[in-house]
Design goal:
globular; four-stranded antiparallel β-sheet; seven-stranded mixed β-sheet; 120 residues
Length: 120
């Protein structure tokens, strides 16, 4: 059973940065796409971004393009989400997700999430 453990969330002022990490165990990390979803209060869970098995391809939601960067370390079974120029509207619970392909991340297996709060 694959397990994903997110960390790195917290409270940050608008314009600041945070880096989320997700340690993956019990699954085929190197042969899976990885990504991040988020859910703000009262809203549906949405796709933030994803990275392919090799790390050679990435995909981002329009709302985070140019500000967020996903990276993976296959030796450490860890995926990262670097978030820069944070906005109040980025406030949400962020979930790490794993799936065979980037295109299927929205319906993949996710962790328990980490809270990110951006204050004005």
């Amino acid at each position: 059973q694959v397990q994903l453990a997110e960390s790195g969330g917290g409270l940050v002022q608008a314009g600041g940065s945070l880096r989320l990490s997700c340690a993956v165990s019990g699954g085929t990390f190197s042969s899976s796409a990885l990504g991040w979803l988020r859910q703000a209060p009262g809203k549906e869970r949405e796709f933030v971004g994803g990275i392919s098995r090799s790390g050679g391809a990435t995909s981002y939601a329009d709302s985070v393009k140019g500000r967020f960067t996903i990276a993976r370390d296959n030796a450490k079974n860890t995926v990262y989400l670097q978030m820069n120029s944070l906005k109040v509207e980025d406030t949400a619970v962020y979930y790490c997700v794993i799936s065979p392909f980037i295109a299927t991340l929205r319906t993949g297996h996710w962790g328990q999430g980490t809270q990110v709060t951006v204050s004005s």
